[in-house]
Write a structure and sequence with these properties.
Blueprint (H helix, E strand, L loop, with lengths): L9 H18 L3 H16 L2 H5 L2 E3 L11 H9 L3 E7 L5 E5 L6 E3 L5 E3 L14 E4 L3 E2 L5 E2 L5 H6 L7 E5 L20 E4 L2 E4 L2
Parallel strand pairs: 1-2, 1-6, 6-9, 9-10
Antiparallel strand pairs: 2-3, 4-5, 7-8, 10-11
The chain binds the ligand Nc1nc2c(c(=O)[nH]1)N(C=O)[C@@H](CNc1ccc(C(=O)N[C@@H](CCC(=O)O)C(=O)O)cc1)CN2 and adenosine-5'-triphosphate.
Cofactor: Mg(2+)
Protein name: 5-formyltetrahydrofolate cyclo-ligase
Catalytic activity: (6S)-5-formyl-5,6,7,8-tetrahydrofolate + ATP = (6R)-5,10-methenyltetrahydrofolate + ADP + phosphate
Length: 200
């Protein structure tokens, strides 16, 4: 880890600029469209072989203008799946707990909603047969830009190679030229209202 005062590398600086641009575009998405897109995205995901076969699915609780997951989380539970959602640890690593419905969530730092159910530990993500994760953009090779915590780079490092790792995006956030740093972990797929795309 570089010391806090060290200048950022070119890729890290380019990520900051690209994040600003993508977040500004998200703020222009009309709210009704978010709901429609979330329903279409959930339908595409539940139709995939990987999610249909999964006993355990790691997902996330969407906030703001992120691709919505509230219906997806309910549908996964109704389909009998064990659903894991993350909590952010002080070092920005992720812990995991089971999603037991909206009442099992509470407001947390950074405007997030986090589970109140017992913590399972950072390694619990390795028990997921499918990982559905947030992001701001993905390249056609599967390089993902996140919110800048490096949380999912750590979590994806614990997931067995070959696991379905799918980032949820808005249309227009796929096929972006994402700056890459050595710690970045690729995803195997992306989904938006337009459908699922296998990457890499
Ligand atoms: N809904 C949702 N839940 C999520 C994520 C997400 O993107 N969406 N995350 C996806 O990862 C994790 C939380 N994301 C985080 C992202 C950044 C920082 C953070 O502290 N960032 C530093 C700036 C880092 C930098 O740019 O150098 C900061 O704000 O001070 C913390 C958590 C876990 N849960
Ligand atoms: N495996 C790791 N262990 C420790 N720190 C890490 C790891 N991976 C990434 N980081 C740190 O996290 C910081 C942010 O990384 P990056 O900008 O790639 O986040 P991101 O992928 O956009 O965010 P997120 O994964 O939270 O959505 C980097 O400065 C990096 O040092």
């Amino acid at each position: 880890m570089p010391p806090p005062q060290a200048p950022r590398g070119a890729a890290a600086a380019a990520k900051l600029a690209l994040r600003d641009q993508l977040l500004a575009a998200r703020r222009r998405i009309p709210l009704p469209q978010l709901g429609d897109d979330a329903r279409a995205t959930a339908r595409h995901l539940l139709a995939t072989e990987e999610v249909r076969r999964a006993a355990t699915v790691a997902a996330y609780v969407s906030v703001g203008r992120e691709p919505g997951t509230s219906e997806l989380l309910e549908l996964l539970r109704e389909a009998g799946k064990r659903v894991l959602v993350p909590l952010v640890l002080p070092d920005l690593d992720l812990d995991w707990a089971t999603y037991e419905g909206p009442a099992s969530l509470a407001p947390a730092r950074r405007g997030l909603l986090e589970p109140l159910t017992p913590r399972l530990g950072p390694e619990a993500v390795a028990t997921a047969d499918a990982v559905l994760l947030p992001g701001l953009a993905v390249s056609s090779a599967g390089d993902r830009l996140g919110q800048g915590g490096g949380c999912y780079d750590r979590a994806l490092g614990r997931v067995p190679v070959g696991t379905f790792t799918c980032v949820l995006l808005h249309d227009g956030e796929l096929g972006v030229d994402v700056p890459v740093e050595p710690h970045d972990r690729r995803v195997t797929a992306a989904v938006s209202a337009a459908g699922v795309v296998r990457l890499g």
